[in-house]
Amino acid sequence: MTVVAEPASTSPASSSPVAPGSLGTFWKTARGYWLSPSGWSLIGMLVVCVVLQLFVQYRLNLWNRDFFNALGARDEGQIWRETRMLMLLVAASVTLSVAAVWGRMTFQRLWRDWLTKQLIDNWLADQHYQRVGFVNGQRQNAEYRITEDARIATEAPIDLAVGLLTSLLTAATFVAVLWNVGGALKLGHGSGAFTIPGYLVLGSILYATCTTLGVVIFARNMVGVIERKNQAEADFKYVVARVNTRTTLAPHAEDGTILGNAQAAVIYQWKLLCSQYMRTTLVSNGNYLLAPIIGLILCTPNYVAGLMTLGEVTQAAAAFVAVQGAFNWLVDNYPRAAEWLSSAHRVGTLLGSLDTLVATEAAESQT
Question: Which class is domain 8-20+123-366?
Fold first, then answer.
């Protein structure tokens, strides 16, 4: 039995990059479901939900302006009309959200089922499961990759793709709102005065750039840490299964050491992963708290100068938050993207190893 110990290479600096070839192998097989009729129909439904939800969010942004302008004018009739409109918009948003959850989880479930069947068929074909334990220089842990890694590899892409599409459309829509509502910012007096057109847009881009760079720098080792964590978990399950399936009933004194080393490796990798999550949380939570306040502060000069109404200030501040949420898609999804890269790499490596066995068998049959 192989002893699994905590290796010296568990430091973040030694992380090996995810091989592009393994991701290509994963997509070569996994994209088959995307090209099926059910895959296309679910993709179309999700796109429609995203677009309609964006329209509702845009109307809610306009509602902010109209409601606070009505408050400022003490227009009781308009206030009640806007209240009724809010109920309709909330109902539409909730309905679309429920539909999107159904479409997203249905896609994930069917895609996982399709991909897992492909993996199992290849694994069982010609008794590959007996020879795929160690191929291409690394332990395959096929059981873990077929179950856990295949689940993550088919769940995360849908969430990430829907989120990215939403972010792109949101950014395009609400950047226009910021440009039109925020207007230009005039600084200085007399001959030294100058104007910054679309200053709210420039401010949002600068702020989002800082937060995105922050998470990339702070959590730059997360992909490697997750990859080693997954491998340690798989090795732990492997040695437990080996002990459990012994054919002899005699006691084996080394079992405790083997299992202890495997467990220690898993706990150590989770310690490193905790550090990475703490770094991303530092940026994401700081952004969550600061973005609404910064939006309001940036609107203050034009509001004080009488160039913006109270309703326009709240509209622009809400649009600023929406743009930050869109621009900071990477900040919010970096851990999930890292998890997916690791699992897709591991599934792709298993598929590549199975292909290697097929090629080897074909070559042996010709000799």
Answer: mainly alpha
